[in-house]
Specification:
alpha/beta; Aspartate Aminotransferase, domain 2; 2 domains; globular
Length: 423
């Protein structure tokens, strides 16, 4: 039932499967699916291409297999294809390209999250998808597409770009070599936890045959109880067709969009630190940017850039990495008047120093009013941090933590923090 539902219904809103005779296997969720895909595709010493910032379990699944990840930069339309360090440069000029590494094998697998990318919130445009596919087709690179947020797409504005993306839908690809396991998409989809970590992988039969052998050697089929829960939900509550599921997704998407807009409004107000300075004849207003972000068009995350170079103590004496670590602790500590957890940017990239500029925040979990309060506390916490002196910053985190206000016993989850923002 699960395979039929995935092929007949869940892929239909995507414009169908763009190659003949697709097949699907069920998994125990996203991480389980990634482990099986990488177990099948990667060998010790291989290079896996990823987006520069990506879903951390993907890196965690590849690394134990001896694979090395190389992050490709992104812009507002998705993974970069042209230019130094872009996908085309990396593949055609390996290992001499900007991101190439001598002695490493040329990449043959690309992992990408095209809709509401985690953590950046970027949705890859149709034109960029075609560019990515063209280059990977020419270079015999398999694309592993992880797309759990497809049904959580909401326009940033009513611009021509977002209208065109919505109207075109589908993939728009003309596939060559449709029956081979390269130069095509392997779609790895996993529903959120209300699906009890059931998921599925869809791809060409040649690839799925090998993947099925890997599945039989480890987890086999997903939990029968979990499958029964899904069947009960789909058949009795949503109905045997897709309408009930789509209606649920529309309602969820509308709630997420409302919460996204609420968080965006607060963060926009907090992008600058406003100060007054006295001139000879007038009051001078000084604006210092302390954060910036792009409005996501899908998913549940905002990728927030903290502009550390405007901090009064940046590089004299504190490095960006030092300030980033102190800000994380400062925001999470009730003793400083804060109780907000964020996801540090270095959690989402292979090269940790590249993530110091960013934090990930989520608008998905908290109720709307709590989310507004948490967003305001986040903004106020960053503003106060810009006003701290050297001794105050050095003292952050030095006191012994005790009881329930310990920093989430390592994570801060479930302890009354406004907390789940970003985690």
């Amino acid at each position: 039932m699960g395979r039929t539902f995935a092929l007949s219904h869940l892929h239909s809103p995507h414009g169908g499967i763009p190659y003949s005779s697709p097949t699907t296997i069920l998994t125990c969720g996203n991480t389980d699916g990634l482990n099986k895909v990488f177990e099948t595709l990667l060998q010790d010493g291989d290079t896996l291409l990823i987006e520069k910032f990506t879903y951390m379990p993907a890196i965690s699944a590849a690394t134990p297999r001896g694979a090395v990840t190389v992050g490709i930069p992104m812009d507002d339309e998705g993974i970069l294809v042209a230019g130094p360090g872009g996908l085309q440069d990396v593949l055609r000029n390996w290992p001499r390209s900007k991101l190439g590494r001598t002695g490493m094998r040329k990449p043959r697998v690309l992992y990408t999250i095209p809709t509401g990318q985690n953590p950046t919130g970027v949705t890859t445009s149709l034109a960029r998808k075609k560019e990515v596919y063209r280059v990977c087709d020419e270079e015999d690179v398999i694309i592993v597409e992880d797309d759990p947020y497809w049904h959580l797409y909401f326009p940033r504005t009513t611009t021509a770009t977002t209208q065109r993306f919505t109207e075109e839908g589908g993939t728009g690809f003309e596939f060559s070599s449709p029956e081979l396991c390269y130069s095509g998409y392997v779609r790895t989809c996993a529903q959120p936890r209300y699906f009890l970590e059931n998921g599925w992988i869809t791809g060409q039969p040649a690839f799925l045959k090998r993947l099925l052998r890997a599945t039989e050697a480890c987890s086999a089929a997903p939990s029968g109880f979990a499958q029964e829960m899904v069947a009960e939900l789909v058949m009795k509550h949503w109905g045997p067709e897709i309408d009930g599921f789509l209606e649920y997704c529309r309602n969820l998407r509308d709630r997420y969009r409302e919460k996204r807009d609420a968080m965006v409004a607060v963060l926009k107000e907090g992008e600058y630190l406003i100060g007054d300075g006295a001139g000879d004849d007038a009051v001078i207003v000084n604006k210092t940017r302390i954060m910036s972000f792009s409005v996501p068009t899908a998913g549940m995350f905002i990728w927030l850039r903290i502009v550390y170079h405007t901090h009064p103590l940046y590089e004299a004496p504190f490095s960006k990495a030092y300030l980033a670590g102190k800000l994380f602790e400062y925001l999470a500590e009730p003793r400083y008047g804060n109780k907000v957890l964020v996801g540090p940017g270095k959690m989402f990239c292979g090269e940790e120093e590249d993530g110091d500029d960013f934090v990930r925040v989520s608008f998905a979990v908290l109720p709307l009013e709590e989310l507004r309060v948490a967003s305001e506390e986040l903004v106020e916490g960053v503003r106060r941090f810009w006003g701290l002196g050297r001794g105050e910053i050095e003292g952050i985190g030095m006191e012994e933590r005790e009881g329930e206000d310990a920093l989430g016993e390592g994570l801060g989850l479930g302890l009354g923090y406004r907390g789940v923002v970003g985690c």
